């Protein structure tokens, strides 16, 4: 229950972890509301002058929008707080000795909920990776001989149970973080409009005006809009799937076949590099098409649109990243080739992603600074001497923004960061039996990724615009989907190990694998009932806060009725 904020009753409102009254996201929204809310309420237009330029500020026109249209204000963006930024650099980005430990509360206070949730997820995921990484390292270092056929199923069962528990315990941690940050919104994905987002109600208002109090017609209209939106989403998903099957699948199979034919390892590395660049281009095209399709869907809010984009683009990446590996694993049934493909994919993709992710922003920033300084030197007529920027705002303006590579209208840079983690998770999980050492590679990469992403946000990019989101959204469903796929693919790999002749006979070993697959799928869908998503202390805290808010609301209502405007402190003393 939300209470109307009044300064006299400030003690009734909970503080943020850093002691402030409002979160960074709330403060930013207030700033935008104030500066964008300046409007000409006078009876006539106002003449404004800037650098010998004169223009009219019309009645009812917003000032900042006018300044932006006249190119006097180029862009509005949040600035870095130098004191907090330097502190985070020391305690987070450059603090390598703690590996996965991060000051999550400070990250939340500085960047907002969405980015803090991402780093909390990445840190927990990396810590949990230590177990399968150690297990995989043991399998790689020691030769178990004839026991290999027994050890691999044990490893497979272990990592599937690990992934199931990680998914469920992350939900518990997510709830605990929200309770610690005093965020009292539901975390269900289908209640996105209650997670600090505004309900897109233009259609609802039009229907209400048109039909008035006729509830029957209003209900029919709402149902028609709801099902039309669902049909549009189904149509768009069908278009993406059809495009993948008809256009992308032949390209992926051609790459896999050429890779199998080539004998030189150097040429294979070169082919993989060219392939990764090509799929980036294809995905950019697919992402633009997806954004246009989403505009015709009846999504409730921006977060819903972003989730729809995530599902569509991940479908493209899923086909690109894994179809070639499936080709080697299930058709050629060549374990050594499969391991080489996995090593090359992990190394090339991770190195390439980190290179593009961290180097490009720095190069863009350096190039912009060079152009500005060259321009100022030409204006001064001097080719020597160091040119300083007029203000910190000018320097921050030159930095690249934290934007997504695809669908930047709906997503920010977290889209690419989550996509990288999801693709890595799928690669190491779905082919765990073929290459157990991949978990060790992923652990080392993620330890580096945490600090590299932190350094990127604090030093190379502008301060991101805060987004309010209480979960990782669609990505959690994608991770759970990858766990289910991992059960199927690893069982297929184990069947291949037992069935060397390729006759696919249902022998005791193969039957055991089939039973194991069904049992693991049952555990996957039943474990959520065993481990609750919300810790008991969080639930108790939430109930307590709801009761307190209800009491405060009742007292506020009574004061309004009686006309007494006593402060919260006076009421507290009278109790």
From TrEMBL:
Domain Anoctamin transmembrane: 107-542
Keyword Membrane: yes
GO cellular component: membrane
Annotated transmembrane regions: 115-138, 150-170, 238-258, 270-289, 309-330, 421-447, 468-498, 510-527
Location of the protein in the cell: Membrane
Membrane topology note: Multi-pass membrane protein
Keyword set includes Transmembrane helix: yes
Keywords tagged on the record: Membrane, Transmembrane, Transmembrane helix
One Pfam family recorded for the sequence: Anoctamin
Protein's recorded name: Anoctamin transmembrane domain-containing protein
Species annotation: Prunus persica (Peach)
């Amino acid at each position: 229950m939300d209470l109307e904020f009044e300064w006299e009753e400030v003690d009734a409102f909970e503080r943020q972890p850093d002691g402030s009254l409002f979160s960074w996201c709330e403060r930013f929204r207030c700033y935008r509301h104030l500066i964008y809310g300046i409007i000409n309420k006078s009876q006539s237009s106002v003449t404004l002058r800037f650098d010998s330029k004169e223009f009219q500020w019309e009645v009812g026109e917003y000032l900042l929008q006018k300044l932006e249209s006249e190119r006097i204000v180029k862009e509005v963006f949040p600035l870095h707080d130098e004191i907090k930024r330097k502190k985070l650099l020391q305690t987070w980005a450059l603090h390598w000795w703690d590996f996965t430990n991060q000051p999550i509360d400070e990250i939340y206070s500085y960047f907002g909920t969405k980015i803090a949730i991402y780093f909390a997820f990445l840190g927990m995921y990396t810590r949990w990776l230590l177990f399968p990484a150690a297990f995989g390292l043991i399998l790689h270092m020691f030769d178990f001989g004839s026991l290999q056929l027994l050890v691999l199923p044990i490893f497979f069962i272990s990592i599937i149970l690990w992934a199931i528990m990680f998914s469920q315990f992350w939900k518990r941690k997510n709830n605990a973080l929200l309770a610690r940050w005093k965020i009292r919104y539901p975390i269900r994905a289908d209640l996105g409009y209650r997670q600090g987002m505004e309900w897109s109600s233009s259609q609802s208002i039009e229907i209400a005006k048109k039909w008035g109090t006729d509830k029957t017609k209003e209900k029919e209209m709402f149902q028609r809009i709801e099902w039309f939106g669902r049909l549009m989403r189904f149509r768009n998903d069908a278009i993406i799937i059809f495009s993948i099957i008809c256009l992308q699948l032949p390209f992926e199979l051609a790459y896999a076949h050429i890779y199998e034919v080539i004998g030189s390892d150097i040429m294979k590395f070169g082919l993989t590099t060219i392939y990764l660049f090509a799929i980036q281009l294809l995905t950019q095209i697919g992402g633009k098409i997806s954004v246009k399709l989403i505009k015709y869907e009846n999504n409730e809010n921006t977060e819903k649109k972003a989730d729809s984009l995530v599902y569509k683009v991940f479908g493209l990446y899923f086909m690109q990243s894994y179809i070639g590996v499936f080709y080697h694993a299930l058709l050629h049934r060549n374990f050594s080739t499969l391991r080489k493909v996995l090593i090359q994919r992990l190394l090339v993709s991770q190195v390439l992603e980190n290179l593009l992710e961290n180097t490009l922003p720095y190069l863009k920033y350096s190039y912009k600074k060079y152009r500005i300084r060259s321009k100022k030197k030409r204006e001064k007529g001097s080719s020597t001497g160091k040119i300083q920027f007029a203000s910190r705002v000018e320097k921050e303006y030159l930095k690249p923004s934290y934007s997504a590579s695809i669908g930047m209208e709906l997503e920010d840079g977290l889209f690419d960061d989550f996509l990288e983690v999801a693709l890595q998770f799928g690669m190491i999980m779905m082919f765990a039996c073929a290459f157990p050492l991949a978990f060790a590679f992923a652990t080392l990469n993620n330890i580096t990724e945490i600090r590299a992403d932190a350094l990127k946000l604090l030093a190379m990019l502008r301060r991101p615009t805060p987004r309010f989101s209480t979960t990782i959204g669609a990505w959690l469903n994608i991770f759970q989907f990858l766990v289910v796929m991992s059960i199927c693919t690893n069982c297929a790999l184990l069947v291949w190990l037992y069935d060397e002749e390729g006759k696919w006979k249902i022998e005791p070993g193969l039957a055991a694998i089939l039973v194991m697959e069904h049992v693991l799928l049952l555990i996957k869908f039943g474990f959520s009932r065993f481990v609750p998503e919300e810790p008991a202390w969080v639930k108790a805290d939430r109930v307590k806060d709801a009761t307190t808010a209800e009491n405060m609301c009742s007292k506020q209502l009574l004061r309004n009725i009686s006309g007494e405007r006593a402060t919260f402190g006076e009421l507290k003393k009278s109790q």
